[in-house]
Amino acid sequence: MKKYKNYFILAGITLLLCLCCFLPNLISQIPLTYGTDLKPQQYFFIKEIYRLYDQFFQNGTLPFYSWNLFLGTNFFAGMSFYGNMDIFNILGYFLKEMNFFDLEMLLTCLKMFVASFTMYAFLSKFKFDPKIKMLGSICFAFSSWAIFFSGQLMFFSFYCLMPLYFLGMESYLREKKFILFCFSIILLIFTNWYFFYTISFFSPIYFIYRYYLIHGTLKGLLKNASILVIFYLLSVGITMFYFLPTILYLSGNNRVGGLTGLLFFDEIQTYLHQLASMFAPNYMYLYSNNIFETKWHVTREICMWAGSLTSLCVFISFTNKDKKEKFANIILYSILLLILIFPNGNAMMHGFSESSFRWTMLISFINILTMCNVLSKITNFNKQTIKKIALILAIYCLCIVPLTILVLGKNMINYLPQILLFASSSLLILIYGFIIVKKESFVKLCLILTVIELGLFNTMLYALKMDRTSIGTYEFNNSVMHVLQDNEGELKSYLNELEESNYYEYYRVYIPNETICWNYSSNCPVEYGVNGLSTYMSTTSPVLNKLIQIDPSITAKYRSSLILNIESKEMINFLNTKYAFVFDEADLPSGVNWQIIVPNYRGSIKIYKNLDYRPLATSYSSVKKYDELQSLDELLTTVFVETDEEVTEISQFVNNASSSIGKLTYEANQVISTLSSEQGGFMVLTLPYDKGWKILINGQEVKTYVVNGGFIGFNIPAGESSLEMYFTPNGFKTGAILSIISTLVLSSITIVLTIRKKKKLN
Question: pTM value?
Answer without folding.
Answer: 0.95
